[in-house]
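Before the break, one more example. Copy the sequence into your notebook; we will annotate it together after we see the structure.
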Amino acid sequence: MIGPTAHLVREPKVDPLERLAKVRAMFYPDGRSLGQRTIPVESQSKDAQFTKYRENLRWTIGDVTFATLHIVGSNDNFGRTPAMDAEQTERKVANIAWMRAAFAAAKAAGSRGIVLMTQANPGFENYWPPAAKSRYFSPFVPRGQPVPSYPAAFDDYITALGQELESYDKPVAYLHGDTHLFRIDKPLYSKKTNRAFENFTRVETFGDPDTHWVTVDPKDAQLFRFDAQIIPDNVVNRRAR
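Here is what the structure looks like once it is written out:
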């Protein structure tokens, strides 16, 4: 995924929104993926309301619907400048529309499941019901102290995702990076039952400095099975020798 994160660059000074437009033009050809063996993809840019969002893509492999959503870390680019806030507000509308379209397309096609891919960790824990938060945080938060919660720009994304899961019972995998902590869990809770959606699995990928990879087995009874593959030359105690 791409993001308007050039604000992190100190030298030379660049315009992050100009860089974002350049990346969109360079890396998202119409109708095809990149790579040596390209595949056909659908782009949200074909929607007259969202023509700039070339990076929001959807495709199908093995009767599974895949979709990318341009949601980025560093609070989804919100809270820095008025221009960046406007960019995030507009992009959020596009992302939520594309997310809902992915669920609709999967239902219409009878897909076996859905894979959503973003860059940002949206902080699922911030949206857990009180009982789940207590179970998770009580060993680490002193008695009487409030459970930590942080304002974030991801509220509307989590709300929309939860709403879609209330009426979708096939497997959904949510893949992201951002915070560089490899984990596989079920962190999305139903507002109706306060129970975790059993058909929803979050996979946070490895990240620097722990660079490894994950395989997926679509023949698993639960559709998705994720196995961590550790690269020997990247193992920390091997590097330390």
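The CA atoms of residues 34 and 114 lie 21 Å apart. The mean pLDDT is 87. Try to locate both features in your own notes.
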